[in-house]
Write the C-alpha cells for this entry.
Amino acid sequence: MSRPPYEPPAQSLTGQIVDALLVLAMVVVTLYLPLLLKLSGAGVTKAVQAAPTWESLGQNAVMAAQWEKLGFDPAKAAEIIGSRFDYSFSWGALALTALVIVGYFVVMLRWSDREYRDVIAERFGDDRPPRRR
C-alpha cells in the first residue's frame, strides 16, 4: 500500500500576518518587560568621590581632553566613570531558564510527533500508520 505524498497544512495569508504580528509583539514585550518592571540596571554600583579630579578618576591627559570635548568636567564625569554593573547571576534562575527551554522543546516535539512521523514515513517508505496519542 502506497501512501500519498505528505502535504503540510496550508496557512492563509491572514494567519501568516497574525503569526508575524504575534511574534513581533512577543519580542517587544520580552525586550521591554525588564524596563517596565524596573529590573534593568538594578545591579549598578556607583563609586562617589567628594572632590573628583581627572587623576583620581583614573583618566590620563588624553582621556581628560576627550571628556572635556564632550562637555564634561571631573564632577559630571565622575558619576559615569564610577558606575559599575554587577554581573552576578543566580544558579537557580539559570536552571529555571534551562528547564523552560527544554520543556518547550519537549512540548513542541510531542505536538509535532504525528507530522514528523508522516514525513519520515513518506521519505523512508514506512507504510505503518502514524501512532495516535
About this structure: Residues 45-85 form one domain.
